[in-house]
Amino acid sequence: MKKATAINKGARVLVQMFLLALVVASVLPLYNVVVASLKSADEFSANPFLPSKSPISDNFVYAAIASHLLSYAINSIILVPIGLVLYLAVCIMAGYAFGKMRFRLKRPLFLLVLFLTIFPQLLLATQVFRLISLMHLTNSALGVILTWVAYFSPFGTYIMTTYFTDMPYELVEAARMDGASPVRILVSVMTPMAMPMIATVAIIGFQSMWNELPFSLLILQNQASRTLTLGIAMMRGEYGLGVPRTSAALVIAMVVPLVMFLVFQRRVTLGATAGAIKG
Amino acid sequence: MRNRGLEQDDIAPYLFLAPLLLLLAAFIVFPVAMNLLASFTEWKGYGPMKWIGSANYRAVVRDEAFWMSLKNTGVLVLYIPVSTIVTVFVAALLREGLRGWKAYRAIFYIPNLLGPVILGVIFSIYLRDDGMLNFSQKWATGVTLRFLTSPRLAMNSIGVIQVVWVHLGFGLIYFLAAMNGIDQGVYEAAIIDGAGFFQTLWRVTVPSIRFAIEFWVVFNFIEVFARMFSFIYTLTRGGPGYGTFTLEYGIFSQGFEKFRVGYSSTWSTVLFLFCAAISVAQIRMMRRRNS
């Protein structure tokens, strides 16, 4: 498609140069850690910024094994999908109720959910921590999962609600005529129809949980139960770890989100603007 | 959300909502209410609460860290217009159908994927006094800039990175989608009338995406008040001094480092008021848009 443009050829070159400069500035911090991760401590102090002359993999082995990154990654890979399944179940059920069912308290309850979407973790942290301790769930997977699902589901519910609201009401009506129960309508009719949006909500939920810090920091105090994100956050403070090893840890941690992006690019992009108001 | 007909679904909707409502009651509503109560007490987070009336509130207005936190948050708020102008401007450039615009959009989105924790640690390396950015800018200017070790510069580093740079990628996707909805004929007419890039941007693009810009500003307020902790924790740990303290960080520091949970709840109440105001503004904007 040829667009009408107000930028002439000469200006286009300038614009491209401006954008390329912006790209270089954006990529430099990442270049910094990738290059550092391949150097020995000695080479790093002699040559901090240029690519390594003799790249080594030792830092990656150290970060994965001695700094426990591998076991943290396994924790994340177990925790996040379980949390995600519960999160989706909660959001789909609630989204369907708000989007397609009729009941007296619908409006006030939906406003309440909207109101609760933005509160920061730290605002809730003290009391959530106390609640988790009372339930004896400190350091447990269940404690963190429940907290994540509770914290992230208002936004997921909001997105599912807007999607279900826009679906034709005749679908529900027809299924009801056939004598289907509400549960059956939700499971066999509405959920399959909502799959595209469910996939988007799943990506949003995955990113939220995978990157979550404050709750995991407070609930998972035991080193063995740390998530990958928490492990990276704690590394910042570990004395004497050094830039090359920390960088290797960062490169390992970057793999999952970047692979996710490459595989699901279109859906990640959609997820970024889901819930935003159409301009 | 419209109710058609009179028939109600009696009990079923409440059953579908039960998991959500139970979780929200336990993990959000109860904590907010307890914070308010605890803010009038002296309490370590366990054991008995001692009612001390408004003493915590009188203490908080005399607390240097509290005013620093508000000031620091103010610095971040000042980056919201910067972020808005930069993002709309770059989106408008990409809208012109420049070669490689999709690649630019994807590259600028990378920081959004990595999340605040990875970014915080990356920049704690990149912005060190002897780090890579200083190496290159010292070569150009001859002075070392203490990006993280001077309180004033540290807060501005956070503003540039977390408010402007990280949001650029998300904003490009969002604004490009909004600009896609503008009728091409309007641009063609403007160009035939001799309008240049900046004139079409100001007269055509910006008015057409006014609602998107409004949403963007509210989104940025949410980020500044409610989503900064993870990045600050990994980048500066709130320092140097109170240099990068925010309300979120103050709650963490008082509650979990000094175990003054009553006093920390006082900070929470202040943060709650800010967030509640932003939340109400967001809901009103949504409803205005949908009606």
Number of domains of chain A: 2
Cα distance spanning the termini of chain A: 22 Å
Distance between the termini of chain B: 12 Å
What is the fold-level CATH name, i.e. the topology of the largest domain in chain A? MetI-like fold
> In percent, how helical is the residue content of chain A?
over 70%
| H/E element sequence of chain A | HHHHHHHHHHHHHH
Structural class of chain A: mainly alpha
CATH topology of one domain in chain B: MetI-like fold
Oligomer: heterodimer
Describe the global form of chain A.
Answer: globular
Strand line-up in the sheet with most strands of chain B: 1-2
- Which chains share the greatest interface? A-B, 109 and 120 residues
Mean pLDDT of chain B: 90
Corresponding CATH superfamily of the largest domain in chain A: MetI-like
Beta percentage of chain B is under 5%
What's the gyration radius of chain B in Å?
A: 23 Å
Q: What is the annotated CATH architecture of the largest domain in chain A?
A: Orthogonal Bundle
